[in-house]
Amino acid sequence: MLSRAARPAFKAGAAATTLRPVVAAAPIQSANYATLREINDRLKSIKNIEKITKTMKIVASTKLTRAQRAMTESRSYGETSQTVFNEAETKPIESENKKTLLIVCSSDKGLCGGIHSGLSRYVRRMLNEHPGDYNIVALGEKCKAQLGRSNGKEMVLSFAGIGKDVPTFSDAQAIADQITLLPGDYSSIKILYNKFINAQSYEPTIIEAFSEEAIAASPNFSNFEVDDEVLANLREYAMANSIYWALAEGHACEQSARRNAMDNASKNAGDMISKFQILYNRTRQAVITGELVEIITGAAASEE
Amino acid sequence: MEGKDHFESSQQPTITTTTLNIHTSKMAFAWKAAGITYNRYLAVASRVVRRSLKEDKRIAAEKRGEMDLRFAKWEGGKQGEVKNLASANDAAMAQAAGQASN
After folding, report:
1. For testing the chain B interface, which of A165, A170, A225 should be mutated: the one with the most B CBs within 10 Å?
2. Stated pTM of the model
3. How many CB pairs under 8 A join A and B?
4. Residues 141 to 160 of A: which have CB under 8 A from any B CB?
5. GO molecular function: any one (chain A) (predicted)?
6. Which residues of A touch B64 (CB under 8 A)?
7. I want to staple A193 with a disulfide (CB 3.0 to 4.6 A). Which of A9, A47, A250, B31 is the partner?
């Protein structure tokens, strides 16, 4: 909502700062008042935008603490689940004719810098390196829209409604269930998400969700004494765990990215406000000086 | 010992007996026969636990069990119809149950 409304205004504001002095240098007397009001109007609208971005920053900061807590908790789920496969030394099966399923964890909401397009770019690079090897499942509207445009043929599923709140484990379970229902036979499943490094940086990272054959074929798996019967359960549950981890970590990244984006937007708005304030004061001065000159010359002329 | 025998002989397809049966017998899980996936089984079990909590804890806990996602299948580069995920999962499991019993 804001992005569409704000960008033309920002652009117009940026253009105005460069254009206005030229106009002001050769003012038409009657137009002076109009430009003055124009500048004032623009100043007001930038101030309003600054208020909005500041508020959004505060909202994002509050959400960030919750998101980070959820992330730390989810990480223990995901890492514990992944320990089994690390200990069993599970490797994804490399096979020529089977595709890999790529689950991309983004969200529905924008206004958070480039984290969604970062994921999309990563996906496109992977697809370019191995064309035809991947099928994509997009979680969240943003990556769906971006990848749907460029790689619509590879898409098999898309989910919406992610990112309204901190992701729940039920979300991850339902997604995992729907993914297991997919007709295709995949050699491995990769979950792509934004890894939270610190508040400023994040990077696209992959978690492996192994197929049943891969789990069964891993060298140390017999140590766990898991019956074949429950193997499918383990796989489904591990996938839900990984998806939950990816969603929660992605959510934390998104909130911190949004906080940064809004922080920058507020700073830029502040810069523009000070520029416009100076411009406004100068123009006002010029108008007053012009009027004084008129009055004085008028008075001097009528004295004679 | 007696309690364990009782569980195996009665073979009631309730959640308690099936969980006990994981290592004790080769009986297929009752919920698996009903077409329910392990994740769904966990979701149902956790919902039961959440609902049996005390009022103040329950409200906070039930928030964690909420799921309101929509999904769409894609074919040949085009997005299909957007459906509710929960109802689609239920339908798919009911279908799986029908196939399993045949």
Report:
1. A170
2. 0.81
3. 87
4. 144, 148, 152-153, 155-160
5. proton-transporting ATP synthase activity, rotational mechanism
6. 168-170
7. A250
A157-212 pLDDT, tens digit each: 999 998 888 999 999 999 999 998 888 788 889 999 999 998 889 999 999 888 88
Name A139's bridge partners.
A105, A159
- CA dist B36 and B15 (Å) reads 12
Higher pLDDT, B42 or A4: B42
User: Chain B partners of A73 at a C-beta cutoff of 8 Å?
Assistant: none
From first CA to last CA, the distance across chain B in angstroms is: 36
**Alpha-carbon span A196 to A193, nearest angstrom:** 9
* ipTM associated with this complex: 0.72
Helix (H) or strand (E) holding A104: strand A99-105
Please indicate whether, in this complex, the C-beta atoms of B73 and A240 are within 8 angstroms of each other.
Answer: no
Average model confidence (pLDDT) across chain B: 75
Mean pLDDT of chain A: 86
Q: What token pair was written down for A40?
A: 């004032």
Task: Write the pLDDT tens digit of every residue in A6-52.
Answer: 455 455 445 444 444 444 444 445 555 668 889 999 999 999 999 99
Q: Which A residues 99-118 touch B at CB under 8 Å?
A: none
Q: Which of A174, A181, A229 sits opposite B86 (nearest CB)?
A: A174
In chain A, domain spans: 56-261
Contacts of range B58-64, beta carbons closer than 8 Å, 24 or more positions apart: B63/A168, B64/A168, B64/A169, B64/A170
C-beta separation of A83 from A182 below 8 A: no
Residue in A84, A72, A54 with CA at minimum distance from that of residue A209: A84
Q: Which one, of B16, B44, B19, B31, lies nearest residue B100 by Cα?
A: B31
Size (chain B), residues: 102
| Structure-token pair, residue A148 | 């749907």
Distances (CA, A) of A12 to A5, A15, B42: 12, 5, 55
Q: Which amino acid is at B88?
A: A
* Residue A244: Cβ within 10 Å count: 26
Structure tokens at B81: 């119809």
- For residue A180, the chain B residues in CB contact (below 8 A) are 37
Check if CATH label 2.30.42.10 holds for domain A56-261. Answer: no
